[in-house]
Amino acid sequence: MNFQKLLVPVASLVLLYAAWRAYGWPGVAIAGGGLVMWLLLHFTRMMTILKRAADRPVGFVGSAVMLNAKLKPGVTLMHVIAMTRALGELRSPKGEQPEIYRWTDGSQSHVTCEFQQGKLARWTLERPPTGDEAPPPAP
After folding, report:
1. Residue 139 forms part of a structural domain
2. pLDDT at 73
3. Tens digits of per-residue pLDDT, 43-59?
């Protein structure tokens, strides 16, 4: 079971209970207001990220090489969408784990990211072969 999903609600209830024990109903009102403000900040951030991503083509990134350099294991899908400012092209069956997304740049280089439970597990950068990298012709 994922304990991170339980941590925020339990911590919120503990905060509300402590506020009630210390200050009564005014303490609950202040703590509840703080929790609502925190939720609104996260909701606003998510909507801003998705609004920016809606204006770009799906699976497009300015530079796949730069995206590859910025990625770190454990970041969330929302964080990667914020970095690329575009939704990734879904490459795995919908609703199955792991989720695989791809972002491609103008030179047809692409980064394929594998997310396990919403967190980045691994990624690969693939670049198309150029004329310099092609094997020399046989004599």
Report:
1. no
2. 95
3. 999 999 999 999 889 99
Q: Which domain holds residue 106?
A: 57-126
Instruction: Specify the number of domains making up the chain.
Output: 2
Q: How far, in Å, CA of 38 to CA of 26, rounded?
A: 19
Distance separating alpha carbons of residues 81 and 90, to the nearest angstrom: 13
**69 belongs to a structural domain:** yes
Q: What is the CATH number of the domain that holds 92?
A: 3.30.1450.10
Cβ neighbours of 115 (radius 10 Å)? 21
Do both 73 and 117 map to the same domain? yes
Burial of 136 (C-beta count, 10 Å sphere; 0-12/13-18/19+) = exposed
Ranges 66-75, 98-107, 124-133: which has the least confidence: 124-133
Residue 90 belongs to a domain: yes
Would you say 41 and 56 are in contact if contact means Cβ atoms under 8 Å apart?
A: no
Ordered alpha helix ranges (H), 25-139: 25-54, 64-70, 77-84
Instruction: Please state whether beta strands 119-126 and 110-116 pair in parallel, antiparallel, or not at all (unpaired).
Output: antiparallel
